[in-house]
Each structure stands twice: as C-alpha cells, then as structure tokens.
Amino acid sequence: MASDLLWLLWTLPLAFALGWWLSRFDVRQWRHTERLAPKAYFRGLNHLLNEQQDEAIDAFIEAVQHDADTLELHFALGNLFRRRGDYDRAIRVHQHLLARADLTPSQREHAQHELALDFFRAGLFDRAERALLALEGGRYAEQARSMLLTIYERSRDWHHALQLTRELASDNPTHHAVRAAQYSCEIGDAARAQGQTDAAERAYQEALTLHPQAVRPALALAHMAHARGEHHAALEQLLRLVHAQPQAAALAAVWLAQWAQALPEARAKAVAALQIAQQVAPSVDVTLALAHLQPEQSNTLLDEALTQRPALALARERLHSEPHTPPAVLHAIDQAMGPGQRYRCTRCGFEAQQYFWQCPGCQSWESFPFKRCGEA
After folding, report:
1. Spatial contact of 197 and 226, defined as CB atoms under 8 Å apart
2. What does the pLDDT look like over 341-353, one tens digit per residue?
3. How many CB atoms lie within 10 A of CB 116?
4. pTM for the whole structure
C-alpha cells in the first residue's frame, strides 16, 4: 500500500511535466509554422511585384505547404501558373480547390471561373465551354458569356454564336445586332459554298432583318442574284445599297460599273447613284467607276478628281488613257501605289490586299474602312 502511494506521488508530477512539455512543443511548432507561412507569402509577393514569377511561384508553393487551407494562396498560385503558361499546373490547382467540400458557394464559383480561364488560355475550348456554362446565373455570368462568344467565333460555331448573341441583345441591341448579322452572313457563306443557295439566301435575309443597315448581306444577295442571271435584280440591290449607305459605294462601285455597262438602260441610274455617293463620301473607287461608265467624260472626271484628291490610282488611270504613255511609267506607278491599295484595320493596324469583315489580326468585326489606305 505504501509503495503504491509512493508510485502515485512520483507519477503525477512526471505526467504533469510531460504534458506541459508537449504542450510547449506544440505551441512552439505552431508558432514556427505561422512564422514560416507569412514570411513565404510576403517573399512571394515581393517577387511578384518585381516580376520574378518563377521565384514567386516557389515562395507560394512553400507557403501552401505550410498552410494548405489558405484559399487566397491557392488562387494566387493558380494565377501565376496561368500567367507563366504552365496551364496544366494551374488546372490542377483549381481542380483541387473545386474538390474541397468546405468552400462557400461564392468561393466555389470563383474557383470555377478560374478553371474556365485555365482551359480557355490553354486552348481547350470544349472543356472551357463546359466550365463557363456552369457559371450561368452567377456573378461571373457576363464574363462567361463574353468568353463563350469568343470560343464560338474561334471554333467557327456560328449557330451557337448567333443564339448566344440573341440572348445578349437586350443588353446592347445595336452592338449585338452588328455581330448577329455577321454571324448570319457566315452561316450564309458556308451554305453558299456547299451549293445550298436557298439556305444561304435565308441566312442573308435574316442578317438584314437583324441589322437593316448591314452592307455585307446586301452585297451577298446582289451577287447571288447576278449568279442566277437576274441581272436587273442584282443591279437594283446594289443601287439600294448605295443610296442607303453612300460610304459603302467604294466597296460596291466596281460591281455596279461592270453590271451597269451590260445594261445600257440602267447606266443612268448607276451614274446618278455614284454621283450622289461621291458627294457624300468621295473615294477613288467611285471616281474610277464613274469614269468607266462615262468614257466620253473620263479624262475630265479624272483631271478634276486629281486636282481635288491626288491619288496614284487616278494618275495611273489617266495616263493609261494616253496612247503614248510608256509601259515602264505605268509599271512604276503600279509598284508605287501597291501599299496604298491595301485595307487597314482601325483597331490594330492590320493591312491586307482584300477586304475583311472580321480582322484577322484582332478579330474585330467591321473594323476595316471601305476606303483603302491611300485615301485615309
């Protein structure tokens, strides 16, 4: 009995001392971890401010290892991976976040948006589309729809693009009407290339319904009518376009002159329409079309135009009408006027010999003026 009491007297202080020491060890360990995580975090932030992304990533990885529950660090790490082009690791970070059960709805939506951005930047458009559709109705819905529209354009999924644009039309009717008309024209061009003329015509008519001032579907319908042999209808379509949109006459003038020359009874209408367009939106192409439609007055027209707006294209046409102009002179003018014959995007400055409805450089719609660079 005395030995048991003595053993108890020795054990209790020992147990108390051991518990106290273990508790102090845990506190020291916790404090050490807490000191390491903020230091790593601030070190990563400092590297990030100095645009040292590799060093910042290493520091944030260290911080996450010490505190795996910190959401902000995960988001920062995922964003750094994405900015660095390391899309696989960014996707894994954000997928890991979405797999957690302790996220609030707002945090889960944020992680979903970041994952969609990862897929989008990586060019995984099918997976990006699924991730973006999951954001419908939330705070990222507007950004998700904008990205979806870009995905549909890049994948040339014009039907889905048109459907989404119709849904967005209530926000900005004018802006979305322009894009919707372009999408309908793309659908029409695809149908026309496959010989589906009825479907193509319906698409172009729908484009005009969506955007009555659109130039592209009017031109397309005129060309389709001319291809069917309906020359008067085609010419009337171009005349309506020039009267409604005089600035577009520069794009339609060459066809208007050619078709009107084949229909002498319509030549006077074409000349009158081009003369009005020339007063409202003068251009070299309209001047050349008028000169071709009025050969007896062509030299006078060209001389007057050169006095008002010197242009190499007009000078070449004027010299070409002279019988003794050396071919070398015409060739030199052709070489000099080359750069001025291009079309230039007003958004990014991309230049091209042909007219584009969507800029190949910046993907903007209707950013090419109807006039060429030499007239700007």
Report:
1. no
2. 788 888 998 988 8
3. 25
4. 0.75
